[in-house]
């Protein structure tokens, strides 16, 4: 009995000691230091430490150097490669940190207002309508099991690319009394169905009983351009159809310059909007190859300058973005890109791509006066912090137009097919 009591007392002492150890500042700092650090050439990574902590390199090469202060250690990334950093507490090794140095990488920041023209894969079904036939009102499309958001890609074995491709099949099938063989794409996959057009007695024409669309247009903001490949990223979020609310599946598309004509100022519960028109020359400045949750992506066929920051900037990975002051580049008058102050309220160091990585707040009095904060059309505006491109504006908070979400630039570059993670080779010591 006494032995069991003694065991409980010892167990309690050990538990209290362990809890105290966890809350001991040097231990907390060790736990906060990641096991792996990734930085670009020419950049630094600094972490806090307690006085007895020292850092040393596992091998002596030119990849990194360490700068130790009383309460911090700075890892200086000198050259593409990798090394290991050993942390000791009172002479006892307690943690190993892998350090990866990526090659210097820079992109041109955007900020320009762009017009977006998307061409869909096939024709998009955006609604049903009833045909007034001699036997009553019916929708052949609905009878055939076609839903809003479906995409018709083939009719009778022929590829459908635009709305004008559909009409000849409809009239021919109506006159022959034969059903159309459709291939339809849906989120769950492709399927086939038969649809028999019906005659509208009021118009003496055969119809599908479907509202369809083959293209979409709008405006947004350029985020970045990769100077070597001419690849770009813009918007920072997917383009969805205004009727179906579903992402538009893109066959191809174009971007053109646009001019902001006026601003509908945002207020609580009512997000504002940039009103813009495509440039008068309608000159195509690039193509659209992808419409994804991270924005639209493609290649430019000519150089674009923003007139504010026309030199390539380094980027920050998601774990390098910090809470605090930052700036955005965007257009609120004509086609002139301007710089405005914002605050990064919170940021998440993400290991995997995600669309909502930052919460931002507009603090610039001039922008607040002009727009009320973040408005539609501002999506894609590049976010710059301490001379680095860190992300893009994506969404506004409906009940607080001064605030919204941002996406980390790391994920937009990844979506554009630009590899920033060239694997470094280990160097001999």
Based on the model shown, name its key terms:
6 helices; 31 strands; six-stranded antiparallel barrel; mainly beta; elongated; Thrombin, subunit H; Pdz3 Domain; Immunoglobulin-like; 429 residues; 14% helix
What does this structure look like?
- The chain has 429 residues and is mostly beta strands.
- The chain folds into three domains: 2-102, Immunoglobulin-like, CATH 2.60.40; 107-115 and 216-415, Beta Barrel (Thrombin, subunit H); 130-208, PDZ domain (Pdz3 Domain, Roll), CATH 2.30.42.
- It has six helices and 31 strands.
- The chain has helices spanning 2-23, 25-32, 140-143, 167-176, 365-371, 409-415; strands at residues 36-40, 44-48, 53-57, 64-68, 72-77, 81-89, 92-102, 106-109, 113-128, 131-133, 136-138, 151-155, 158-159, 180-186, 189-195, 198-200, 205-207, 210-225, 231-234, 250-264, 273-278, 284-287, 290-292, 295-299, 313-314, 324-333, 336-347, 358-362, 382-385, 388-397, 400-408.
- The strands form six sheets. Strands 8, 9, 12, 13, 14, 15, 18, 19, 20, 21, 22, 23, 24 and 25 form a 14-stranded antiparallel sheet that branches.
- A hairpin with a 5-residue loop joins strand 18 (210-225) and strand 19 (231-234).
């Amino acid at each position: 009995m006494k032995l069991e009591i003694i065991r409980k007392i010892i167990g309690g002492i050990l538990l209290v000691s362990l809890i105290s150890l966890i809350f001991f500042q040097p231990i907390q700092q060790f736990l906060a230091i990641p096991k792996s650090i990734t930085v670009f050439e020419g950049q630094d990574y600094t972490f806090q430490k307690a006085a007895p902590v020292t850092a040393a390199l596992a091998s002596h090469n030119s990849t990194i150097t360490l700068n130790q202060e009383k309460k911090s250690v700075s890892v200086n990334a000198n050259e593409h490669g990798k090394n290991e950093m050993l942390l000791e507490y009172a002479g006892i090794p307690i943690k190993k940190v892998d350090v990866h140095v990526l090659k210097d990488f820079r992109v041109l920041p955007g900020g320009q207002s762009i017009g977006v023209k998307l061409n869909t894969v096939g024709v998009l079904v955006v609604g049903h309508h009833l045909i007034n036939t001699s036997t009553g009102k019916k929708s052949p499309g609905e009878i055939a099991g076609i839903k809003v958001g479906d995409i018709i890609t083939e009719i009778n074995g022929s590829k459908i690319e635009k709305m004008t491709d559909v009409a000849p099949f409809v009239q021919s099938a109506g006159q022959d009394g034969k059903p159309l063989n459709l291939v339809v794409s849906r989120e769950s996959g492709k399927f086939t169905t038969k649809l028999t057009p019906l005659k509208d007695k009021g118009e003496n024409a055969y119809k599908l009983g479907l509202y369809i669309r083959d293209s979409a247009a709008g405006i947004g903001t350029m985020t970045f351009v990769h100077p070597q490949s001419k690849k770009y990223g813009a918007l920072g979020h997917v383009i969805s159809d205004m009727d179906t609310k579903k992402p538009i599946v893109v066959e191809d598309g174009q971007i053109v310059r646009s001019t902001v004509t006026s601003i509908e100022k945002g207020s609580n519960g009512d997000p504002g909007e940039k009103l813009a028109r495509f440039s008068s020359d309608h000159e195509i400045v690039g193509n659209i190859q992808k419409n994804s949750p991270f924005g639209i992506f493609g290649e430019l066929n000519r150089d674009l300058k923003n007139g504010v920051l026309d030199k390539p900037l380094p980027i920050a990975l998601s774990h390098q973005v910090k809470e605090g002051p930052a700036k955005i580049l965007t257009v609120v008058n004509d086609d002139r890109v301007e710089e405005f102050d914002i605050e990064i309220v919170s940021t998440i160091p993400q290991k995997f791509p995600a669309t909502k990585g930052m919460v931002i707040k507009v603090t610039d009095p001039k922008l607040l006066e002009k727009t009320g904060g973040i408005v539609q059309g501002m999506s894609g505006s590049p976010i710059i912090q301490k001379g680095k491109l860190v992300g893009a504006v994506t969404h506004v908070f409906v009940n607080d137009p001064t605030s919204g979400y941002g996406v980390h630039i790391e994920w937009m570059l990844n979506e554009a097919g630009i590899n920033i993670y060239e694997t470094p080779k280990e160097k001999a010591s």
